[in-house]
User: Fold these one by one.
Assistant:
Number 1:
Amino acid sequence: MRATVLVIACCLAIAGVAVGQQPPQTNPYVEKIVKEISAKNIQASVEKLVSFGTRHTLSDTLSETRGIGATRRWIKSEFERYGKGSSGRLVVEFQESTVLPSQRVPTPTRIVNVLATLKPAQDGLSAGRTIIVSGHYDTRASSPMDVKSDAPGADDDGSGVALVLELARVMSKYEFDVTIIFGAFAVEEQGLFGATALADWAKRQSVNVEAVFNNDMVGSTVDGSGTKENGFVRLFSEAFTPLDTGAVLRQRISLGLENDGGSRTLARYIKEIGERYNPEFGVQLIYRLDRFLRGGDHRPFHERGFRAVRFCEVKENYDRQHQDVRTENGKEYGDLPKFVDYEYCAQVARVNAAGIATLGRGPQPPTKVEVLTARLENDSELRWQKNPEGDLAGYLVRYRQTSSPVWEHSVFTADTTIALKVSKDDFLFGVQAVDKEGNASLVTLPRPSGRQ
Ligand SMILES: [Zn+2]
């Protein structure tokens, strides 16, 4: 759960490897971004969001002080304020669509995501690669259809939106090779419609969405029994998507890759990078799409084949979630700002920042990665296509026991082939591209190749 130990494989395990100059494991540029995250700013944003009374999807859209309309105009103005320090690279917009009547939306309803898109610093090779980080700004009271009562949603999901705002504030001053979309989504509580609208757009436009970091309830550290946990966050990911069917599914299972789908690979990456840059805070991988009886905005992305994960606090408090604000028998109910642990939320923000910044400055994942299976032998040979980036240092070849949840071994090479003195039957392999700053890409898992 805590800092992952990166084991550099002993030279004896390597045969005929052209080992180049291994770059550092941490990048001062990313460290600087992580250090700038402020719990105070997150608190101010949560308190402002709560001040709109309710952010129910069907609440007032015209008032300047109450309801969903005032909320989204304020979020937009915040993004625009941060954009002033971005040299015109942060583009802020409302993404509008109409939800047709459904179980929790009785009439056709205009819904609005607030998006701030940070353009890449230059129009290079990675400009089309896109990372999305999100929270949802709508809330609900005890009844999902109650549009009048206060529904403060400080934790659900004021914490996620405040985290996204803080990342936009900090990161828009820095330069990345990729496009980063900071999203405050609408209508999560009534059926994930806001996130679905963006996921559909990304699919239609064939956007190269490399990763979705969804943050939903990332500020509670005390549960209903009073037990506290503030040392780690849960990261939910599902191994398979509904698109993994037929021959694709059969091959994945026969290769023992049932634990290495896109979203799971992303989760493993975030844990490793997050704990490296912020060693005192852990990331617990949860091998599930989400919690029982609950859903989240990563789901529409995951179901469309994008890598998408959800951050969620460890100690959920059911006296506060989806509850009318009230006191009964001396007990306070409701999702109020005083119950949010802002330093905890900032820690989750730092994990997000480390992962997004590393991916955003790093190379694209290697392509055409193959494990050679032409002969029966006890060693393992891999090869892959050379990455096109000019600042590339080389590749990290990763491997682990088939039963291990995280990568255990790491070998650096500047070459595009490697021979390892371990059996391909007994390990899972992957290859990451790494640049001279030390930013590593996502891991690409090899396909078997019978060619020599
Ligand atoms: Zn939520």
Note: The pocket of zinc ion is lined by residues 136, 156-157, 188, 216-217 (CB under 6 Å).
Number 2:
Amino acid sequence: MNWPRLPRWLPWLMLLLWLAYVAWVLIWARAQRSAPLPPPSTLSQSELRKRGEYLVKLGNCAACHTARGGAPWAGGRAFETPFGTVYSGNLTPHPEHGLGRWTADDFWRAMHEGKSRDGHFLNPVFPYQNFAAIARDDSDAMFAWLQQLPAQAAPRRAHALRWPFNTQFSLALWRALYVEPQAALQEAPQDGMARGAYLARGLGHCSACHAPRDRLGGFNPASLGGGKMPVSGWYAPPLLLQERWEEADLRLWLASGQAARHAAYGPMAEVIFSSMQYWKVEDIALLAAWLKAQPGQTLPPHLQLPKLGQLQPEEAQIAQRGKQLYQKHCAECHGEQGQGVPGVYPALNRDSSVQYALPENALRLILHGGFAPATGGNPRPYGMPPFAMHLSEQEVADVLSWLRVEWGGAAKADPAAAQNKVFISAPGVAQMRSLPAE
Ligand code: HEC
Ligand code: HEC
Ligand code: HEC
């Protein structure tokens, strides 16, 4: 009997399929790794609820889990990511749409491992890599508090992510690459540096914005090295620069959004507005002490403005124009020497966003203006007026170029290697204009 001849490529195809299958199984197994489930808290329900109310403030949960104009805690807030839009879930105890059928164990798995009740992987816009550091007692406390909220019948909105980012497999791959299972902590540290670290790393999720991210959005939750936030383009500076901050100033600023030389703006103003102004004085103090104790570091080179050489005639002209614009429009608040008015108008001549190689933050404030958050400690913040309507793109470019030449940092002695990185162009301003103000 004659068998038909098999094509020569068939074994290769089978080998390839087999390899793909093995890779799939390995990735899936890695993504599913988890730490053993710790026993539930032994605290009473009323004690848990009391703690939970404060803990959800520390974690800023409501801000992300409330849609603009929507019912509080009912989810549906949209988050733009480079891969599409993600919507937060409903955390009220609604049996169908919220956490009504959840147990404290389910909730722990969501917080600690980023898995929903049915086991599906949650999108990392939910900062579960940070929340993995939360103790079981604190997780149970937040759950107990959420369970006594009025149930809201707001159905979950499906994420609008592009293929292949909308698949569980892509989340599995992401987890395999970036997520390490964390040992479970039973009780939260209540004092000392350990509490400062616990707050920064865990509930406060500072690194969700302040850690550098790669192109797939991966980051190391223990890093505070500074980074550009995806899509919005805001730059969250490194939090390792603590020689720049007096500890007392840092405490004041974290709690109120305003200190002698700096006023909070953009996403940080939101964090202070909806979360940090409600932190206990002791917790702010422990966080500030811990931040101050982190090894100091100057801005990484790619974020430092390069040293300038002798200005070319053309550049000197730009700077001259920028200086005049500054004196006309800005000096009344920020001062002739950029010194600001302590506690009212931020200084520009030192420790300000004018020194970052990334111009985005400063550009945005000039175009769209800004407000420090209104807080208990600073109830009527002063605003920076928007200049998008008053200055042309060329003028905005000129004034920011001058700020960077004048106060951008380094001595103007070095060869003009990277001069073009100091000067901002009108098309650069036009591009920034299209980004949302917030
Ligand atoms: C930066 C925004 C952000 C913050 C802060 C945040 N969440 Fe979320 N959370 C999300 C998003 C987005 C999702 C949806 C993820 C998904 O469905 O893939 C989510 C999902 C969840 C889920 C899973 C819900 C479900 O139905 O599977 C729980 C539980 C949760 N969050 C609890 C919390 C708690 C508690 C806090 C505060 C300690 C918190 N979140 C803070 C954005 C956030
Ligand atoms: C949603 C993103 C986000 C989160 C979360 C966040 N930050 Fe920020 N942070 C920013 C941005 C953007 C800036 C730059 C704007 C400014 O200076 O006000 C900033 C600025 C700062 C600064 C000023 C740094 C400097 O040298 O001028 C400090 C200090 C700071 N954040 C501390 C924290 C701490 C502590 C946490 C966690 C408890 C935290 N941030 C969480 C986005 C964030
Ligand atoms: C009416 C007073 C006022 C005027 C005029 C004004 N600013 Fe501001 N500026 C502020 C305030 C207040 C803030 C803090 C805003 C915040 O915290 O959101 C600020 C913040 C800034 C920052 C960020 C500072 C930092 O710490 O990083 C820059 C850069 C800046 N202004 C540039 C300018 C330029 C350039 C002009 C002129 C074109 C100008 N400002 C005009 C009040 C003013």
Note: The two ends are 76 Å apart (CA to CA).
